[in-house]
Amino acid sequence: MATLTEEVEMLRKIPLFASIDPGKLKLLAFASDRKVYKAGQDLFKQGETGDSAYVIVSGVADVVVENDADELVVASLGENEFIGEISILCDVPRTATIRAREELQTLKIKKEHFLGLVTQVPDLGIEVMRELASRLSKTTAELGEARRELSDVKK
Amino acid sequence: MERNLLRYIWQHSRSDQLWMLVIILASMPTYFLSLELPKRLVNEPIQGVGFENPGDTGFFLQMHLPFGETLFGRPIMLFEGFEFERIGFLWALSISFLALVVANGLFKLYINTYKGRMGERILRRLRYELFDRVLRYPLSRFRRTRASEIASMIKDEVEPMGEFIGDAFTQPLFLGGQALVALLFIFLQNLYLGFATMIVIAFQAWLIPILRRRLIELGKQRQIAARQFAGRLGEVVEGIQEAHTNDTTNLERAEMTSILGRLFFIRFELFQRKFSVKFINNLLIQFLSFFFYAVGGYLAIRGTLDIGQLLGVIVAYKDLPAPVRGLIDHDQKRLTVEVRYMQIIEQFTGDELQPKELHQIPESEVPNIKEGYEINRLGVEDETGSKLIESATLNIGKSERVAVIGKFGSGSSTFTEVLARITPATSGKVTLDKVSLEDQPEYIMGRRIAFLDGGTYFPQGSVSDTLSYVLKNQPNDPEAAESNTDSLKKMERKRSANFHLEFETDWINYEKAGVSNQDELAEKFREILTDVNLEADIRALGLRGSLDPEEFPELASALLEAREIFRGRLVELGFDEFVEPFDPQKYNTQSSVGENLLFGTAITKGFEDSALPANAIIRKILDDNELHNPLFDMGKEVASTTIELFGDLDPGNPFFDQLNYMNPEDLPLYREVLSNIGDSPLESVPERNRVLIMRLSLSYIEEQNRLGLLTEEMQSKILTARKALHEKLESLPVMPVAFYEPETYNSAASILENVLLGRVSSTTAEGYERVSGAIQNLLDELELTDDVFRMGLTFNIGSGGKQLSETQRQKLHLARALLKNPDILIANQALNSLSAREQREMMETVFRYADRRDEDNRMGVIWAPMQAGFANMFDRILIFEDGELVEDNPSEQIVSNSERYKELVV
User: Fold this and answer.
1) Is there a contact between A34 and B654 if contact means CB atoms under 8 Å apart?
2) In whole angstroms, how far apart are CA B518 and each of B170, B513, B813?
3) Which of A5, A27, A34 shows the shortest C-beta gap to B655?
4) Nearest to B700 by CA among B660, B650, B646
5) Which residues contact B473 (CB under 8 A, 6 or more apart)?
6) Rounded CA gap, A78 and A98, in Å?
7) What is the DSSP string of B321-348?
8) Residue B859 · residue B824 · CB < 8 Å
9) Which of B722, A69, B112, B900 is nearest to B730 (CA)?
10) Which end of chain A has fewer CB atoms within 10 angstroms, the N or the C?
11) Reported confidence tier of residue B890, pLDDT bands at 50, 70, 90
């Protein structure tokens, strides 16, 4: 079992937390719960309201999107990935189900702890904004791409 | 009840009082002789009066007829006595003195015992009589009287009477007699001195009662104030929640202060007056001695009175103050006690008591209800005179299903209460089987009718006690119970006119529940509890409860077996990664350092988690095993890391809920402790600081706290220390800890914990729920559910049933009513804390029970439901509006046509 110091190291590898003061990260690590999931167990389900985000310590998880009765694995996530942060930042339901593909060790960060840290460390807030902005621009670019392809098809 | 205490005592102890008088009189000669003898001892054998010449003899036990000379002109010798020489005479007198002292002591012992027993008997009788009245009060009376005031009256206020009762008659007679003799003696010596004495005493007798008038008044006030105090105190405790939720604790403080103040001033004035009366008494008596010395002396010097007479008067006078003072004290006591008694009796008198006959045990089988209710022009008013029900006339047959609905305050609730005889009718007539309701004996109202309302109050006891309460109407075999009771108990019960039925016997009427023994009854409980959706709750209580393996050895061993199976299945269930069984040879990583050291459940307070750091035995063990220093360093490390992590956070920061081993407020304290300790060695650290630091290390859980402080080496040292600790504790006379041992049942832990005997990792999602679910399944599979259910039946529901939720209590109440198998079940918003769906389900259950009995014996149901919408389940609907019965029709008709019904349902 990893100690706090190791967990801090792990958190540092996540781009979002890379520039945060180690003391604060230690606090975050301390406050977060270590949760273990068996293969096939869900971390959370699509449509639920979220109260925490997760960092994968070890193992692989699938991102599953449910469409009516069908389930579609759209991506998989590995070590050091940060999951579920969108729904703790703005109260939207989970956009996908996350399911452990194999035994999954995670660090569960509660919403109030994460937000507490943001208010304590303005840099973190900026990091979050930067991350989200870059995702947004990526998504916008993808959307543009998709529209173009769509209009090509329509023609 | 008799309003005069002395008369009450006399009525109930006449022969005892007379017998006491006889004994006291009989003890007088011995008493007198034991005073007389020493004088003779000194004079005759010791100083030698009558033994002037060697060879002189004296007569022992020579007896003359008293006043023989006066009557017959010559001394009449009754018994010549035994002749002794001087030494022999000394021995004879000394031995008879010893005998007299012993006899005297025995008399005293007998008299005091007798008096005490007499007092206790009357006290017991009085208390019982008062309690009997409480049971016969009309129910409305309890809305005005506080329960704790009644308790205070019956328990505390009558207490001082016990002491008084034994002395009530004998003491004044005895003391009065003594005083009279002394007075007579003074008279015989000198007429004037006699008159003077009498005048002073008469003056005293006149003055004292005047001074006392205020004392009596104060005594009354004190009693009332004390009663209020008890009443308020009880109220505050019962309603403690209100004080907290409304921030009125300070109001309560102020009120108590004011009540205590009133009590203080009354008591203080009482003391002042009491002592001034005493002072005047003493002064008057002492004035007499002044009078004897001065006036008597003057007369003697003048030669009017001879010195012998004066000395005689003074000697006689010496005996006067004691009995007079005694009389005065006795009278004082009498007054206080009489006032108390009056005060109590006033509270318990009232002509509204139910007649005794209604409470009688039925001589034959209690008849079933044959027809039902006839209600004629029923009117009900509350105490303020406002009308709750006006002129309702209707009949309700015994097997009908009637819903009583209406808006809040419409009278529908009151109507059900009238039918159950909880609220009396103020006008009109209600009869049950043609007998007026107030004349129906309790055994009809209490056994043939069941009443339920939303308020549930259960006395402390187990679930099964609570259920079987309704089956305990009378002992199964009163005669057998009588003959088994020992005769002393029986005799005393009779002498105090207490109740004639034995309590310590089997009161449960199995037949009434349709079963024949205890085991079947438990099955019946289970059936009914299942029907009211409470069975699973009771089983869960059973799992949470503990079990004494000596009382239930089979179940304990079955549970041990379950433990073994559960352990064997951990891998199969996939629990092996997050359930860590307790293994005496292994360090349990899910438990704290302290728990690992103790490795058991504390039985005494000194070994509970919070007490471990200061525990001397633990300290010694840590020292012996070279753990004290490393753990101390670890504690310091935990403290400094915690300060580093949390030190600059605001107190309200959400991160603090993650800090489970320290209070956020304690951070500054630990900062100070750390700087105080610095690098000083453990030995020189003050105890308080050591305890604070050790608290951190003992509650450290590596799995959870993850500071990387607990090395393999320390873990193995802790294991060695655990062993040493267990050896040490086993040598103690009383074991303070129940160890976690895989082969033994741990009586301090719950059943669930016993099967688990391990820790569930807190980091696994839903770990504990999954484990307890699996254990329930396992117990099911091993057919232990029955036993767990039975253990649940023994669960103590707490005072007022507060260990159960309101919903559970209401269901339990319903279960009890069904168990009673009444002819008519009346309910008034009885299930209002259940969900609407469950309420409907429960009503269906009730109907199912009603239909179980044959057609013409069907159980009637009269229900004032929480929501009018339930009414369509019944056959007939009554609608009340502003106290008037406005509609009374078959339910189809009302449901389809009534505007009022539609309005109520919406």
Assistant:
1) no
2) 54, 11, 20
3) A27
4) B660
5) B443, B446, B447, B507, B509, B512
6) 12
7) HHHHHHHHHHHHHHHHHHHHHHHHHHHH
8) yes
9) B722
10) C
11) very high
Mark yes or no for CB contact B706/A27 under 8 Å.
no
Is the separation of the CB atoms in B776 and B554 below 8 Å?
no
SS3 of B227-268: the string is HHHHHHHHHHHHCHHHHHHCCCHHHHHHHHHHHHHHHHHHHH
Which residues lie closer than 8 Å to B803 by C-beta, 6 or more apart? B795, B796, B797
CB atoms within 10 A of CB B222: 20
Nearest to A4 among B578, B706, B765 (CB): B706
Provide the number of CB pairs (under 8 Å) joining chain A to chain B: 57
Cα–Cα distance measured from residue A44 to residue A97, given in angstroms and rounded to the nearest whole number: 6
Question: Are the Cβ atoms of B706 and A3 closer than 8 angstroms?
Answer: yes
Tokens of A9: 């190291």
pLDDT tens-digit series, residues A121-142: 787 788 778 878 888 898 899 8
List pLDDT tens digits, range B412-469.
999 999 999 988 899 999 999 999 998 999 999 999 999 998 888 888 889 999 999 9
Closest among B189, B81, B763 to A7, alpha carbons compared: B763
The pLDDT of residue B763 is: 67
When CB atoms are compared, the residue of B578, B655, B708 closest to A4 is B708
Interchain pair B765, A35: CB under 8 A: yes
Interface residues on A facing B, Cβ-Cβ cutoff 8 A: 1-5, 7, 23, 26-27, 29-31, 33-38, 41, 110, 112-113, 115-116, 120
Average the pLDDT over each of A2-6, A36-40, B152-156 and give the range with the smallest value. Answer: A2-6
How many residues comprise chain A?
Answer: 155
Q: Could you say which of A23, A31, A41 has the minimum Cβ distance to residue B644? A: A23
